UniProtKB/TrEMBL annotation:
GO terms for biological process: chemotaxis; signal transduction. Residues 374-556 form the Methyl-accepting transducer domain. Coiled coil: none annotated. Keywords: Cell membrane, Chemotaxis, Membrane, Transducer, Transmembrane, Transmembrane helix. GO terms for cellular component: plasma membrane. This is Methyl-accepting chemotaxis protein. SUPFAM superfamilies: Methyl-accepting chemotaxis protein (MCP) signaling domain. It comes from Kineothrix alysoides. GO terms for molecular function: transmembrane signaling receptor activity. Belongs to the methyl-accepting chemotaxis (MCP) protein family.
């Protein structure tokens, strides 16, 4: 496919655009992008700071109300837990603070039952034992702020502030003040981050506790609904994923700023934990209002890019037009020179006062003068070339005949050298085979010598092991005999057990006799010697037990004595076997090891002499092979040189023919050059 050629002006326009305009636009785009992200992050950070400031303001306001409840709990009328005294005080406090701030006050006893209520007796008797407004301060014994909820007794949306009541350092109940949730919402509604921004607050479970749309307060849950509520799950599925993450982060007590796109409109959500029961506050503002500076910056950058492109494009077009005019003049002068006109005309050029353009004009006019000089010289030298070519042709013809005779003689010499080289190669192959065989014999003899040395070492090791085993067996035999002798001496003591047993039996008989006499005496003494009779019975029982034990000892002693006698007989047989058989086997094994070592030594000497002879044979064959290889290499080199000379001679002849052809061509070119010069000047 033929490539399309563009004009020089278009090409200059492309190059200048790529070199200057586009890099500048890219740099401007990078600066714009960096500025956008910087301002965006700063705006998000500022929004988060505003949310934290709002949370601090709300905590300060709630702490103010907390101090009111704590102060009220220290009043004697409240400590009395008597509604006739406490209710008037709390009603007066409610009137001072205003009914638009406080919903109601109540006091619950230690069982969680309301017994004081600013709404009167109709509020008495409700149990709030399980509510965190009572359970937490009662358990933790400190003031507690509960999450917004609907009051059981009044049905209003309230925020509970509860503190324990102490009387004589004893916990007797809990005072709870309920702030109207509208009071808290007013603080949020009066705060505006931008013109159309709003603020909402969520409980820890995602329930809306403050919102400009009062219908959502304590009736809507922004967090993940129960799986059983199909309608709520369907509504939750339509919420953008980024907004779900905002609600999840708020219920987890996190802070941050996120851009959320909802119904083709983008909003900036900036949330921050309130610091009370994992509640969170979120500021929602339209992105166009939050990022006013960013959008203005983007517009400014777009206009700047357009102006830069416009001015850069015009400047590039003008520059490319002037440069292309300069090149057109160069093409015109070159065309005149190619047509044989060496006298050029002056013309006004772009950038004529620049150093480069002046040098360019000087070079073109110098080229014109040089071309005129060259053409004149070629005309004279072409005639000389024709004469020289004729002389060279005559010398080549005479050299060609001599080269033919030299080539014929060299071919005969090369044939004889080749035959001698083939015979030498056959002799070299036979010598190489003999050298390989001698080398194998020498290597085998070395391996045999190494193997016999290993045999000698193994035989020597076997002989040492046999002698060491014999010595060890003799030591073991002596030790066993000594131990057997001692064991036999010790076994003799078992006879003493029999004597001791007889003595125990004798003592048992006398003890039995003594107990019999004691029993007779006790019978004579009558009832006054009952204790003596008991002792006599116990002595008789002891004597009988001693007799039985002595009998068992005697039986065991007989068994032990018989076992010791059998053991002594077996030990004698074992020692006799070791002395007669094992020791003799060790002696026989030692003799075999000595004979094996002597044989291995003799074989080693034989292999060493064989290895020496084999090595001498290998050295002789190696020397012979080296000499034959040298002869073969020399013959091969001579053959190659002769063949090379013959080839060079033939090639030289070819070259001479080529030179003759070139000379003839030069003669033709010379004639053509003279003809062309004549025609060029004629034009």
């Amino acid at each position: 496919m033929k490539r399309k050629n563009h004009s020089l002006k278009i090409q200059f326009f492309k190059n200048l655009s790529l070199t200057f305009v586009l890099p500048f636009l890219l740099l401007l785009f990078i600066i714009t992008l960096y500025t956008y992200h910087t301002v965006k992050e700063e705006t998000e950070r500022k929004s988060t700071i505003y949310a934290s400031m709002l949370c601090n303001q709300m905590r300060t306001e709630i702490e103010k109300y907390t101090s009111i409840v704590e102060t009220a709990a220290m009043q004697e009328s409240v400590k009395s837990m008597d509604y006739t005294q406490a209710e008037p005080y709390l009603q007066a406090l409610l009137a001072v603070e205003g009914s638009d701030v406080w919903s109601h006050f109540l006091i619950a006893n230690q069982y969680g039952t309301e017994q004081v209520h600013t709404e009167g007796k109709q509020g008495h008797g409700f149990s709030i034992r399980t509510q965190e407004a009572f359970a937490m301060p009662w358990k933790e014994e400190k003031t507690y702020v509960s999450e917004p909820a609907v009051s059981i007794s009044t049905g209003r949306a309230v925020l509970g502030i509860s503190t324990p009541i102490y009387r004589n350092d004893k916990k007797v109940g809990v005072l709870i003040g309920y702030l109207r949730l509208e009071c808290i919402s007013d603080i949020l509604n009066n705060y505006q981050f931008t013109n159309n921004s709003y603020v909402f607050m969520l409980n820890s479970d995602g329930t809306v506790s403050a919102h400009p749309d009062q219908s959502l307060v304590l009736n809507t849950r922004f967090g993940l609904p129960d799986e059983d509520d199909a309608e709520a799950m369907a509504s939750y599925a339509q919420i953008p994923e980024s907004l779900k993450n905002v609600y999840l982060s708020m219920t987890q007590g996190k802070n941050g700023s996120v851009i959320v796109k909802d119904n083709d409109t983008s909003f900036l959500y900036s949330y921050y934990p309130l610091g009370i029961r994992d509640m969170s506050v979120c500021i929602v503002s339209p992105l166009s209002e939050s990022f006013t500076l960013v959008y203005g910056l983007i517009k400014t950058m777009v206009i700047s890019m357009f102006l830069i492109c416009l001015t850069g494009g015009l400047g590039t077009v003008m520059m490319s037009h002037r440069i292309s005019s300069l090149f057109r003049w160069i093409m015109e002068q070159t065309s005149l020179l190619s047509s044989g006109v060496t006298s050029l005309r002056e013309k006004k050029l772009p950038y004529k006062n620049t150093k480069e353009v002046k040098e360019l004009k000087s070079s073109i006019f110098a080229l014109s003068a040089g071309l005129e000089h060259v053409l004149s010289g070629l005309d004279a030298q072409s005639h000389d070339l024709t004469l020289t070519v004729n002389d060279v042709s005559e010398h080549i013809a005479s050299s060609d005949a001599n080269i033919g005779n030299i080539s014929s003689h060299l071919q005969h010499i090369a044939s004889g050298t080749k035959a001698a080289s083939e015979a030498t190669e056959t002799l070299k192959n036979s010598s190489s085979k003999n050298l390989s065989f001698a080398t194998s014999i020498a290597d085998f003899s070395k391996e045999g010598k190494t193997y016999t040395l290993d045999m000698m070492q193994k035989a020597e090791g076997l002989e040492k092991n046999a002698r060491h085993g014999k010595a060890s067996a003799m030591e073991v035999l002596a030790s066993m005999r000594e131990n057997l002798k001692l064991s036999m001496e010790e076994s003799g003591k078992s006879a003493m057990i029999g004597k001791l047993t007889e003595e125990i039996l004798d003592i048992s008989k006398r003890t039995n006799l003594l107990s019999l006499n004691a029993s007779i005496e006790a019978a004579r003494a009558g009832s006054s010697s009952h204790g003596f009779s008991v002792v006599a019975s116990e002595i008789r029982a002891l004597a009988e037990s001693s007799k039985n034990a002595a009998g068992k000892i005697q039986d065991i002693s007989d068994v032990v004595t018989a076992a010791v006698e059998r053991l002594a007989l077996d030990a004698d047989n074992l020692l006799s076997f070791i002395d007669t058989s094992v020791i003799n086997d060790y002696v026989f094994f030692t003799d075999i090891a000595n004979n094996y070592y002597a044989d291995a030594t003799e074989i080693s000497r034989m292999m060493e002499r064989f290895s020496e002879h084999a090595e001498q044979l290998r050295a002789s064959f190696a020397l012979m092979d080296g000499n034959i290889s040298h002869i073969f290499a020399t013959m091969d080199e001579n053959s190659g040189n002769i063949t090379g000379i013959a080839q060079l001679t033939s090639e030289f002849a070819v070259v001479l023919h080529g030179i003759r052809d070139e000379v003839n061509a030069c003669n033709e070119i010379s004639a053509l050059l003279r003809s062309s010069l004549s025609a060029f000047r004629a034009e």
